[in-house]
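batch_manifest entry 22 of 60
target: UDP-N-acetylglucosamine/UDP-glucose/GDP-mannose transporter-like
source organism: Echeneis naucrates
requested by: lab member K.T.
priority: normal
notes from requester: please return tokens only, no post-processing; we will run our own comparison against the previous entry in this batch. if the run fails, retry once and flag.
--- input ---
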Amino acid sequence: MSAEARPDTADHSGLHKFCSAVFYAGSSFLITVVNKTVLTSFRFPSYLCLGIGQMITTVVVLYVAKKSKTVQFQDFDKSIPFKIFPLPLLYVGNHVTGLASTKKLSLPMFTVLRKFTILMTMILEVYVLRKTFPKRLVYSVVAIVFGAMVAASSDLAFDVEAYTFILLNDAFTATNSVYMKKKLGTEGLGKYGVLFYNSMIIVIPTLLASAFTGDLHKAVTFEDWVQATFIVCFLMSCVMGFVLMYSIVLCSYYNSALTTAVVGAIKNVAVAYIGIFVGGDYLFSWTNFIGLSICMSGGLVYSYFTFKSKALGDNSERTRELKIRITEESTERVCPS
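--- output ---
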């Protein structure tokens, strides 16, 4: 079987898949901690303006990279908005609701309720990408959701607005992941083009919205702009916003939307338990802690079955390919040209 006949395997090696997944997990972990520091520890008043800073950073970095010929992507034309739609709307929705929920929820509860992204992603992949999943994966998802519900039922810092934001964020994240995978595979925009035009198309409307709501004024008049520590954390958040979006695109490109959600679940194991001691806004209760543990255990089991089945599939594919090669070589010996 020739390399040309199987381009996906050549382009998406196991090393690429693994490294992109680890890159996404690390980026997601770091930006959660940095955003939590900016929005909670420093009490920065506008998560919307923090998101705008991340969008502007993405546009500037990719524009400079394109001009210096470090990266390449399609030049803007009137077909771009139609090609990329609805990703910009999903992108800003994911961005804003994610930052809002980060500000309003403790890190452990944030990561627990983010588990619903996995269930939503699975449902969307079934209906949008026409995928099917084995029962063991479905059962592990049920365990994840059950643990999240147990933890949430005893959340001593329950906030209706915060829970609304995090569940909206789950929906935006799942939809964004599925449609990003679809666009990367069919529209020919490329990884960098998706990132650049996502941010460029939506940054001006978001900036106008922040000015209209008064968020921009709150951000500009924030008193901690004179503190070097806050400025460093704010700039780190802006840079990590770009890095996170790039890592999501990269992981979705080399893997599947569901694998990206699984990697996020693995990352959340570390974030949730560290968040008990970092951030200062977690209120301990045994029911909540047990729910956290059930949720994280379900995430690990889910991840184990997913990557185990993927490894078995890769081995099976290599075995079939080897058999085909042996058959072809035997045929050539019996019937030489």
